[in-house]
Amino acid sequence: MRSIATVTVAPAETSLTTLTRVKSELNLTTVDAARDALLESKIDEASSDIEAHLARVLARATLSERFWGEPNGGEYLVLARAPGVSITSVTLDDVLVSASEYRLEPETGLLYRLDSSGYPCAWTWCKDVVIVYVAGYLLPAETGRTLPYALEAAAVELVSSYWASRGRDPTVRSEDIPGLGAVSYWVGAVGEAGDLPPGVESKIAPFRRVLV
To answer: Would the pLDDT of 93 be above 60?
Structure first.
């Protein structure tokens, strides 16, 4: 069985935190357009790095996902994105499926097939199944935010790390200044083992999606 998901309505926001939150964390109270623009770019960078590390898109979007291939898909389909907020429609072999004949498990993104009596049964098709759905979190800049606070805290911590290391030689792991002491730095790059600071890693670990 294979699937391909297409975004039909893109996220309204993609930043996992806000400039106001980051400036408060860094105790920056003055207005500085150049500095704030740099912080905004670091927020975008941190948000992208966290999503890359989790291998998932977190912002809310509307998608159309098509499953095809092996005609017996089991009693559930795994949607490409989660949490699933709502199912707009399910079309099986070009026929609209009643909402009473499927059930969404929002946090995992599992879509179960039900028979006419409401009992679990297998997804079967000749051509394909097309599911239109809304998935993802409302981010901190959006009304009614649903993004877990741990994920925002991870983004703030990562931006703070980027801010503290600006202008520093990224190849330097530690410095020993006679009479003043020694300082060691976290070194990493996205895509490598240990690519995020330990505090960020621990905050985002519970949000790795385990596909079954």
So the answer is: yes
**Adjacent-strand bridge partners of 183:** 175
pLDDT at 192: 46
Q: What is the pLDDT of residues 28-54, one digit of tens each?
A: 999 899 999 999 999 999 999 999 999
Q: What separation in angstroms does the CA of 211 have from each of 77, 82, 112? A: 11, 11, 15
Do 84 and 109 lie in one domain? The reply is yes
> How many CB atoms are closer than 10 A to CB 76?
20
Task: Confirm if 75 and 139 have CB atoms less than 8 A apart.
Answer: no
Do the beta carbons of residue 128 and residue 66 sit within 8 Å?
yes
For residues 90 and 125, membership in a common domain is answered with yes
∠ CA 107-149-14, rounded to 5°: 80
Range of the domain at 154: 2-58+139-206
Nearest Cα to 155, choosing from 195, 120, 204? 204
Burial of 17 (0-12, 13-18, 19+ CB in 10 A): buried
| Centroid of chain to Cα 67 | 22
Q: Looking at the 3D structure of the chain, how many domains does it have?
A: 2
Token pair 């020993």: residue: 176
